[in-house]
Structure formats: C-alpha cells, structure tokens
Amino acid sequence: MKAGKGVAGLLLVAAFSLMGCAGSPIQLSFGNSTMGTYVEADHSLVQKGSGNYAAVYFLRPQTERYMGATDNRLTIDVDKEQLLKLVKSEYTLVHLKPGEMNVTIKSLTIAGPFREFKKMKRTKRFEFERGETYYISVEPVDGEFRGTYFLPHLVDLAAAKEKSRFMRARGLAKKVPLHSPDSDPLLPFWPFI
C-alpha cells in the first residue's frame, strides 16, 4: 500500500511541475536570442532612423522534405559580421546602408561516408542602392556526399510574394509583409484538411 502512495505522490509532483511550464513558452537562449529568426540590430551596416537605406528581405522557403541538420537555423553574415539568424519557412526585412557587400550563408550539414557534421558556408557579392528594395531567397543546394549548402539568390517581387505565401514574417517584415496580412500562411488549404 505504501508503494502505491509513493508512486501517486511522485506523479502528482510531476504534474504540478509540468503545469508551471504550460503557461509560458520555453525559451532556449543562445547569445541574445531565442531559437527563432532575429536580426542583430547593432550590426554596423544596419541603418536606423532615416530613409537613407536599402530595404532587403531575406527569405528562407520551406523545403519539400525533412533535411536533418540542414533544417537548422542559418547564420547570415554581411561583410564578415553576423547580421541575422534565419529559420526555415520565415522571412525578415533589414534596412541596410547602401553599397557593395558580401553576403555569407553559414549552415550545418551531414556529409561524407561516415555521415559526420560539417559546417558549410557560401558567399555572394551584392550591391544595394539607397531607396531600392531587394529580395534575397536563401536556397539549399544538394552537394550529395559533400553535404548541403545554401546560396543567396536575388529574386523579383513576384517571386518573393509567391515564396512568402506560406512563410511567417518576422521582425520588420511584420510591418511590411509580402503577403496579405489577413491570410494565414501556415494553413493554406485548411478547408481541404
């Protein structure tokens, strides 16, 4: 009889401790962020204030299948300084100072015959002009046994709108979304499910 009361007491304690977590989101902090998309506001090329900037959207579309470590959050550096972290199926807007700059995409993949983790990075040079809006889609490239890496591609407004239909806007992109704010990008075919 005593063993039954001990188990019941243990289950009761476990239930109360889980109830404390139910009302608050779990946040795993790494640096100054949680696990979602975020922009480093103190980056040297982020323009604050006036309209003397280039508006740059960074989009990371959903992939057609699960890709393991490649699905993790990407790091995007601009001129060798971390600008943002970007999660799959999200996009954000950054106001950058005009000029030429290198955009580097850093990711993690599994590669080689022994399926080991490997850090990947690819860089592409862009020129951003003041008053212009740019859309950079970050796309995976399957390097087969060498692993998957990501390349930034400049796309036009129509392609950006199409890609963003099923994506979540983050940061400044919430104020200026690419898709209609009244549509739910996560449930595009709700009546058919």
- Total helical elements: 2
Encode the helix/strand succession as letters: HEEEEEEEEEHE
Low-pLDDT runs of 5+ residues are 16-33, 188-193
Principal-axis shape equals globular
User: What structural class should be given to the helix and strand makeup?
Assistant: alpha+beta
The total number of structural domains is 1
Cα Rg: 21 Å
What is the total tally of β strands?
10
Largest sheet: 5 strands, antiparallel
Q: How much helix, percentage-wise, in residues?
A: 10-25%
Q: What percentage of the residues does DSSP assign to strands (E)?
A: 35-45%
- Numbering strands along the chain, what is their spatial order in the largest sheet? 1-4-3-6-7
Write structural notes for this entry.
With 193 residues, the chain is an alpha+beta fold. It has one domain (33-176). It has two helices and ten strands. The protein has helices spanning 2-22, 157-164, and strands spanning 38-39, 54-60, 74-78, 81-86, 90-96, 99-111, 116-128, 133-142, 148-155, 168-171. A hairpin with a 4-residue loop joins strand 6 (99-111) and strand 7. The longest helix has 21 residues, at 2-22. The protein is globular and about 60 Å long.
